[in-house]
Amino acid sequence: MDKKNRKAIIAGNWKMNKTATEAGLLLDDLIPLVEYAGCEVVVCVPFTDLKTAVDKCAGTNLHVGAQNVHFEKSGAYTGEISADMLVDLGVEYVVIGHSERRQYFAETDETVNKRTRAALAAGLKPIICVGESLTQREQGVTEELVRLQVKVALLGVSAEELKNVVIAYEPIWAIGTGRTATADQAEEVCAAIRKVVGELYGEDAAKALTVQYGGSMNAGNAAELLSKPDVDGGLIGGASLKADQFAVIVKAAAEG
User: How far apart are CA 77 and CA 69, in angstroms?
Assistant: First the structure.
């Protein structure tokens, strides 16, 4: 499929790193390095860094994302953050269903769907994460599992809303482990994601969908991964905390 039909997006997932002060310094380093990026660049920062990031990125080509969102608009949910709160700050994107949220904080396919719908209703752009464990890959159920995750995540999402959705393939076995899926493995699953979206919404919608790869993409392997026809960008972990390395990935996406 022709990549010209869709937008390349490189999003940095800072995870639980950087104080607000440190975030400001990192963004000061990053902004000039990606000023002329040929793709969309997003920084997904901790809740405490969002105001700093929104202020720093104002007037630049960087977009700001959060790392999670609750599915209720308000209420007795101590420690949670609603979509309206994020929008009011000026946040544009939000990561939903990251494997670390699923693994450590009991998120499920169903809560991923609820968060996705809440985000879209408020005007946020969700980056929905899907992916398999090493055991599941070895059992040969990767495609079936990812298809299920995508289908449940998109329940109740309209074709019009889908235009604001990004899906990130994040093999759990390759996150924070230093292991990376081969470019062919990444392409195979990203293509399967696009296929199931095509079954749900039609071929045109599938062609327009941005599908990222997010398993330990770094400055050294980004170009090969992003050269694949169905890999439209990356959800970057550790490498997003180093401005020079992140800039290399952004450049590779623009050339991919």
Answer: 12
Catalytic residue numbers, as ranges: 98, 170
Distance CA(97)–CA(110), nearest Å, equals: 10
- Condensed to tens digits (0 to 9), the pLDDT of residues 125-184 reads 999 999 998 899 989 999 999 999 999 999 999 999 999 999 999 998 887 777 778 999
pLDDT on residue 134: 87
Percent of the chain at pLDDT > 90 equals 89
Q: Write down the pTM of the prediction.
A: 0.96
Q: Give me the pLDDT at residue 1, please.
A: 43
Tell me how far CA of residue 95 lies from CA of 158, 168, 169, 182, in angstroms.
19, 9, 12, 24
3-255 belongs to which homologous superfamily? Aldolase class I (3.20.20.70)
Domain boundaries of the chain, sorted by first residue: 3-255
Q: Which residues pair with 10 in a beta bridge?
A: 41, 234
Alpha-carbon separation of residue 39 from 34, 83, 98, 210, 248 (angstroms): 9, 25, 23, 12, 12
Q: The tokens of 113 are what?
A: 């769907």
Nearest-angstrom CA–CA distance, 112 and 102: 9
Closest CA to 111 of 126, 91, 132, 92: 126
